């Protein structure tokens, strides 16, 4: 097939399986879309919660805020974000998202490199 159509809400939320469902929803959509090279994730961070900070070896990512508001921490810098803000992040830059009072809903796009992502265990927010 030369295309795939999938509603992102129908993709499995892996947060419960990983033990993070009190903080967020995480739907990694590349398999459901049968994508070969492109990664896509749909995240909903619950009000006042933080997502998982991470970085990559190779994959540059672009995040697009769909709804809600919050902050993104990029290395040592913290920026406010809201609907339709797009954030490009270089691979090695540690990034983390924090939802405001209405939560934060976003898409993440980038090239798919198996095993490329690294969750950062330290509290990047200080």
Topology record:
Layout lengths: L14 H4 L5 E5 L9 E8 L8 E3 L4 E14 L2 E5 L4 E4 L5 E17 L5 E3 L7
Antiparallel strand pairs: 1-2, 2-7, 3-8, 4-5, 4-6, 4-7
Task: Report on the architecture of this protein.
Helix content is 3%, strand content 47%. By secondary structure, the protein is mainly beta. The chain has a single domain (12-112), classed as Jelly Rolls (Sandwich). The strands form two sheets. Strands 1, 2, 4, 5, 6 and 7 form a six-stranded antiparallel β-sheet that branches. The protein has a two-stranded antiparallel ribbon with strand order 3-8. A hairpin with a 2-residue loop joins strand 4 and strand 5 (77-81). The longest helix has 4 residues, at 15-18. 22% of the residues are buried. The model has no long low-confidence stretch (mean pLDDT 94).
**Strand proportion:** over 45%
How many alpha or pi helices? 1
Q: Enumerate the spans where pLDDT stays under 50 for 5 or more consecutive residues.
A: none
Domain module count: 1
Shape assignment: globular
Order of helices and strands: HEEEEEEEE
Mean pLDDT: 94
Q: What is the CATH level 1 assignment?
A: Mainly Beta
Structural class based on helices, strands and sheet pairing: mainly beta
What is the fold named in CATH at topology level?
Answer: Jelly Rolls
Distance between the termini: 48 Å
Largest sheet: 6 strands, antiparallel
Task: Please state the CA-atom Rg, rounded to the nearest Å.
Answer: 14 Å
CATH superfamily: Jelly Rolls
Q: Give me the CATH architecture, please.
A: Sandwich
Give the tally of β-strands: 8
Proportion of helical residues: under 10%
